[in-house]
Design goal:
By secondary structure, this protein is an alpha/beta fold. The chain folds into two domains: 190 residues, Rossmann fold, CATH 3.40.50; 171 residues, 3-Layer(aba) Sandwich (Rossmann fold), CATH 3.40.50. The protein is 43% helix and 15% strand. An eight-stranded mixed beta sheet has the order 3-4-2-1-5-6-7-8, sandwiched between helices. The chain has a six-stranded parallel beta sheet with strand order 11-10-9-12-13-14, with helices on both faces. Strand 3 and strand 4 form a beta hairpin. Helix 4 packs across helix 5 and helix 12 crosses helix 14. The longest helix has 23 residues. It is elongated.
């Protein structure tokens, strides 16, 4: 099989568990792309070498910039004119773009020497900037992964349109993001939708509520605007007023941590709602089996950002939790509404309250839905099944 390079911003990154699962799934089929980490990362992972870019090499740019402008003047000019013609939406994206460009200018000859058939950028930001540039300089085909953050937030990455136009194909993991790619002009045949994967299937022994018939609610995610946590707190406040006995644990950290704690206390929920901060994956996994229901209240934030299918939703489904998810993002794609989970408007607090009130009173009525959740998670998110689909995408 011809050689393929996978470009990451940072690899491995603790929070990006799905990318490691996908590499393991591809390894089951003897497909081992070379792994490149542009910004920091490790030198190896599970006995596999990581080609970690040495940032000190950026000092060589005064040589490589005129070198490539002399050899490929039209290609270099095209990229710079494209950047000049469009505003960059954030300083972070500006830095990511120029680091990706710097990596490409310095490493392009090495990629040609290694005779890669395809360069795949796992993210549409920095890695895709590098892949696009190497492709233009060395005529190597490239593809990219485009996820909700990449295409929705502030209208997408600075170079996004050029990347989408130039790529051999675009891989995404949700239909909602795929539809956005169609709107941006990517041909449907060039969009490859492959779900993110799970590799472990927890076994729930009991579907009854715990001691004192208290509903144990769980939510996992960064404390940022697009997660809709202020709506979740208002749902919790209504639950309390309805007399439902419950506890809500929110796992995650982020810039809204202090504001959310203030809002929790203002709503009189200090005894019901706890913020646990960030936890490692191995500490989160057992909680899916200990808790009864999972809440996801994602919204479209002020910058247009939203979630596709958050990894935590299929993880909760696989553990047999009752999943209540916002209909404002891609989460409902993970289940069948009313059969293996529930999709609701995150601002319609009464609907969430009524459903959870009914669950509290009649938990036995929801056992079949929770079992269906486990079945649909296995059907849609199995790592081996999706690994085969990825092999068809990357290996052809």
């Amino acid at each position: 099989m011809n050689k393929v390079a996978f470009l990451y911003a940072t690899f491995p990154r603790p929070t990006e568990t799905f990318v490691r699962r996908e590499l393991r799934a591809l390894a089951e089929f003897e497909f081992f792309p070379n792994i490149y980490s542009i910004w920091k990362g490790e030198n190896s992972w599970e006995d596999r070498k990581i080609y970690k870019f040495q940032l000190s090499k950026l000092a060589l740019l005064p040589f490589w910039i005129p070198y490539w402008f002399f050899l490929k003047p039209r290609e270099c000019r095209d990229v710079l004119l494209y950047l000049w013609s469009r505003p960059c939406h954030s300083f972070q994206n500006w830095c990511e773009t120029f680091l990706g460009l710097g990596f490409a200018l310095i490493e392009a000859k090495n990629f040609k020497r290694k005779d890669y058939r395809l360069i795949h950028a796992v993210w549409a930001t920095m890695p895709a900037t590098a892949a696009l540039t190497i492709s233009k300089l060395q005529s190597i085909e490239f593809s990219l992964g485009a996820h909700a953050y990449d295409v929705f937030r502030n209208g997408g990455d600075w170079l996004l349109q050029m990347k989408l136009t130039s790529a051999k194909f675009v891989r995404t993991s949700s239909r909602s993001t795929a539809h956005r790619l169609y709107q941006l002009g990517v041909k449907p045949a060039d969009v490859k939708v492959v779900r993110r994967s799970l590799s472990e299937w927890p076994k729930r022994e009991c579907f009854a509520l715990g001691k004192g018939k208290t509903i144990k609610l769980l939510s996992v995610g960064r404390l940022v605007e697009k997660k809709g946590y202020f709506h979740m707190l208002k749902i919790a406040a209504l639950l309390k007023r309805s007399g439902v006995l419950f506890s809500l644990k929110i796992i995650g950290n982020g810039p809204l941590n202090r504001d959310l704690i203030v809002e929790r206390d203002r709503l009189g929920l200090r005894n019901e709602v706890s913020f646990s901060g960030s936890l490692k994956q191995k500490a989160v996994k057992p909680l899916y089996l200990e808790y009864d229901a999972f809440l996801f209240t994602g919204i479209v934030d002020s910058r247009g950002d939203r979630d596709g299918i958050p990894n935590v939703v299929p993880e909760a489904l696989s553990a047999g939790m009752l999943v209540l998810a916002s209909d404002r993002a891609g989460a409902p794609e993970a289940f069948v509404d009313g059969e293996s989970g529930f999709s609701m408007n995150p601002e319609d607090y009464n609907s969430w309250n009524l459903l959870l009130l009914d669950f509290w009173k009649f938990p036995q009525n929801y056992i079949s839905i929770r079992k269906n959740a486990q079945l649909i998670a296995r059907e849609n998110f199995d790592s081996s099944r999706n690994g085969r689909k990825l092999l068809e995408v990357y290996g052809n």
